Amino acid sequence: MTTAATIWTLWIAVRAKQPLVHNITNFVVMNNSANALLALGASPAMIHACDEVEDFVAISQALVVNIGTLYSEQIAACKLAAARAKATGVPWILDPVGAGATPYRRAAAGALAQLRPNAIRGNGSEILTLAQQTQSGQGRGVDSLDASETALEAARQLATATGAAVAITGAVDYVTDGQRVVAIANGHPLMTRVTGLGCSATAVIGAFLAVEAEAFLATVAGLAVFAVAGEIAAEQARGPGSLQVALLDALYTMTQDDLARRLRLD
Amino acid sequence: MTTAATIWTLWIAVRAKQPLVHNITNFVVMNNSANALLALGASPAMIHACDEVEDFVAISQALVVNIGTLYSEQIAACKLAAARAKATGVPWILDPVGAGATPYRRAAAGALAQLRPNAIRGNGSEILTLAQQTQSGQGRGVDSLDASETALEAARQLATATGAAVAITGAVDYVTDGQRVVAIANGHPLMTRVTGLGCSATAVIGAFLAVEAEAFLATVAGLAVFAVAGEIAAEQARGPGSLQVALLDALYTMTQDDLARRLRLD
Amino acid sequence: MTTAATIWTLWIAVRAKQPLVHNITNFVVMNNSANALLALGASPAMIHACDEVEDFVAISQALVVNIGTLYSEQIAACKLAAARAKATGVPWILDPVGAGATPYRRAAAGALAQLRPNAIRGNGSEILTLAQQTQSGQGRGVDSLDASETALEAARQLATATGAAVAITGAVDYVTDGQRVVAIANGHPLMTRVTGLGCSATAVIGAFLAVEAEAFLATVAGLAVFAVAGEIAAEQARGPGSLQVALLDALYTMTQDDLARRLRLD
Asked: Do the Cβ atoms of A104 and B52 come within 8 Å?
């Protein structure tokens, strides 16, 4: 069973190692994801040119791939970087933002999932879409896009099909490796009124992947830390603007006691 | 006459409908525009690839086109999205950032204005430039770039030529449909020391266009809400950094009474 | 000897002239760099299309070139803009972000440094890399990447080779023109936990280049103002999130007395 003590130990390892986390991410969240990683104790870099992503991922300790503001060259860069990461043993995480919104996006997310990320994080709809994309040619309908049971079953399938730890974030976050499931009941509803917090959570998981070989544990740790930081921030915030600021502060100032006292894992 | 009660009713409709607002916008303001829309109660998406903008605008309730950090593919994406929006009845707003600064920018803004946006928002110089661009081949000089009367006359002409509601923002904001004119005397000078607040105001108008078919009224409502939020924020801020944060908070926490008490429409 | 009074006089000039500062910069910091320039009293524009950078730099009072999130078209745009700046007497500054991380980045930074920027700002590793790039074909090893003496010697060489004022930022900032050296012992360690503050410092130097023809003095002034603002902000901040906000506030509210009392030049 994952405990606050285990998660804290991993966080200490992040701060000690200050892993270089290579992000190919969207333009909306670049600043916040970099700041979340810095507040956490990691060392972020945002590098997306096809001419250098392979060189850069090779000197990094983790790779974060996020398709938020997708365009053709970015897809190419993501594929190059993911392939090199896989070849050189650099762990990587996929954030399939808006995977189901357009055919273009669905195809890109599906193709990246085939490159065997160590972890995948999305909301229920994104994970459902991706689970369908990775099952050869069948259009199994889903009755309800927001039924977390349906999404969780999809997450299990996706984890089994890709070998990734799969996280569904929402009111409660779930992480599965296809067999085990952990639920994290932290966070705060106001977090949904700030753009890109899911993307920042993905980046934070990336930092934990750099220090923990078991992707399932790293994913639980990253989400737990981020959700607890959001919860602390929400208590201090007057609205979504100040929440975003306070969240970065909380990622920097959170104590082991804060984490232990607040963590609600199941 | 537009009243605070009318504006509030529209805002309630935004919060109830949570319209998906498709933004093709500049890289400087993507994060803040998304956050302004979330704080307001809308659902933003930043999508700019030519490969998917047409699909995405078709599932959106409004489109925001902003030429701030222009480049060739973005112009193409804006044109595709605007044309599809027009064809499918999705209202759209144009923000001709820096329209007069370079020939490239002037041409792009002029071409987009021809695609019949439902609303246009800019500062005085931008509206003057655009009014000239939309008048066939004449270079009518303007005596003073900052004389609001001159810009207002240009706004009237632009509204008549394009069919759009046209807003000029500045110390006082003006909205015209070519005949009617409303002045909004809210806001605060410190807002000019924060980048991209005009762009965020445009995005907020986009959300109101999603719930109100009369573009003139939607534009007045969007600007009024944004300017009052800025005014509340300026009272709490210690400088432009905290203003930006407080503005997002105010968009989330503003009450009907705040709006009614502060609104200065004419 | 540069004094707080001299720096303050230059800052007053920035506020009076409100120079248009053209930035071709990375996507991570666009918002913060623009806001830093606005808080300082300058007028920022983020313009990167090859189709318009030459026209735009010609109407600007300074140019900032930053290679953070590099891609091919941006390199081309940087070269076009720098060449035009040089041809029309617009001062410009180069920020060689991550210059040594990949061959692609090393080549781009080296090529830009050849275009004779008026100033260059980087951390120790970046300046060391760039100094090597500008020395014809020799791979002189550096014993320690973080020894500030080594970096300072490289900065001197780089200044001599390019004619630029060269700044190394770190716990203590150094500025040299190849002969003179000034050390600025302001700032705060928490600033390293906020992304892109170095980039914002570069942009602020750009604003001072617009009002002071001697690049060495402008660079010292820009760094001093920025470091003191960071120091004030760190005293008010609860973590890196609030530091970023407070820094913008401090750039707007700092008094001459604040500057004089805190400045530690040597």
From this structure: yes
